[in-house]
Specification:
- The chain has two domains: about 15-110, Jelly Rolls (Sandwich), CATH 2.60.120; about 120-255, Globins (Globin-like, Orthogonal Bundle), CATH 1.10.490.
- The longest helix is centred in the C-terminal third of the chain and has 28 residues, at about 230-255.
- The radius of gyration is 19 Å and the shape is globular.
- The chain is an alpha+beta fold.
- Helix 3 crosses helix 5.
- It is built from eight helices and nine strands.
- The strands form two sheets. A five-stranded antiparallel sheet has the order 1-2-9-4-7.
- It binds protoporphyrin IX containing FE.
- Protoporphyrin IX containing FE binds near residues 170 and 247.
- GO terms for molecular function: FAD binding; heme binding; metal ion binding; nitric oxide dioxygenase NAD(P)H activity; oxygen binding; oxygen carrier activity.
- It comes from Hyella patelloides LEGE 07179.
- Belongs to the globin family. In the C-terminal section; belongs to the flavoprotein pyridine nucleotide cytochrome reductase family.
- This is Putative globin-like protein.
- Keywords: Heme, Iron, Metal-binding, Oxygen transport, Transport.
């Protein structure tokens, strides 16, 4: 949901826009233009966002509530009125002690859009069959690693779809399609669109892509063993980042148009 358009001037009383979920995070994009995005985040008391990085410079301005921000290893107490600048790629983690509302301003990307090299395309395509063969094993392992290391993301998932293997199978199919069509991304549009809508419904955040990336790459390594050579891992790291950007961009568009 986007509250306002960047074509017109606009004022809002942030307190009126705050809505806390019973658990987890509710976010509202207040405004977005070509360079910046202003999002109101409302975190239920006790919500934790594990350490991650962002590819964009960010400013966090606390509106109400208290919490703790760990920025590059330093603890910062979050309280109303606090303004924190977080440079791109600075690791940070957050914990809401009480219901906590803040505005996060993301400014222009400081990291250039990922362009996938021909070498990466060739390597990724050459791994498509192996991924098809071991796909579900890899994605099952990836969720196992993720839920163990980042248990707070569990709240966003339907755990019965994990237990019966539906979700690992869907992720494996998506990864296989990507490996097959990495040089013809138009073929993936419908798939990206469907997944992105599901992600928006489940409040997936851009920052979470590094978590999934880390766990997916580790799972590929665990399952493929010696076949996961350093060339294969480098190619998949690059390819994953490019795919993550495709999802993040599409999800930002949907967040703007869909009330969630
Ligand atoms: C490039 C990376 C990713 C791929 C390829 C991917 C793929 C998928 C697929 C295929 C689905 C099923 C969609 C459907 O039911 O139609 C899905 C759902 C979902 N994804 Fe992702 N995803 C990615 C990243 C993420 C990230 C970063 C998160 C954040 C934690 C996430 C969280 C979810 C959630 C919560 C669901 C709904 C699952 C449920 O209902 O239990 N995904 N994803």
């Amino acid at each position: 949901m986007t509250v306002a358009s960047s074509n017109n001037s606009f004022t809002a009383t942030l307190q009126d826009l705050i809505e806390y979920p019973t658990s987890g995070i509710l976010s509202k994009v207040l405004l977005k233009d070509q360079n910046s995005q202003y999002t109101l985040f409302c975190l239920a008391a006790g919500t934790e966002i594990d350490e991650h990085t962002s590819t964009r410079n960010a400013v966090l301005t606390v509106v109400e509530g208290t919490g703790n921000l760990n920025l590059e290893g330093k603890d910062i107490t979050l309280a109303p009125g606090l303004f924190v600048f977080m440079p791109a790629n600075a690791p940070h983690a957050l914990q809401a002690k009480e219901n906590l509302a803040f505005v996060l301003t993301l400014s222009e990307k400081s990291v250039k859009k990922q362009v996938v090299s021909q070498q990466t395309i060739d390597i990724v395509k050459s791994t498509a069959n192996v991924l098809k063969q071991h796909g579900k094993k890899i994605t099952t392992r990836m969720y196992e690693i993720m839920f163990d290391k980042y248990p707070e993301v569990k709240a966003q998932f339907d755990m019965s779809a994990q237990a019966n293997g539906t979700q690992p199978a869907k992720l494996a199919a998506a990864v296989y399609s990507y490996a097959t069509h990495i040089d013809d991304l138009d073929r993936l549009k419908a798939m990206v669109d469907k997944i992105a809508h599901r992600h928006v419904k489940t409040h997936v955040l851009p920052e979470q892509y590094s978590i999934v990336g880390e766990c997916l790459l580790k799972a590929i390594q665990d399952v493929l063993g010696d076949a996961a050579t350093s060339e294969v891992m480098t190619a998949w790291t690059e390819a994953y980042q490019a795919l993550a950007e495709i999802f993040i961009d599409r999800e930002q568009q949907i967040y703007q148009t869909v009330a969630h």
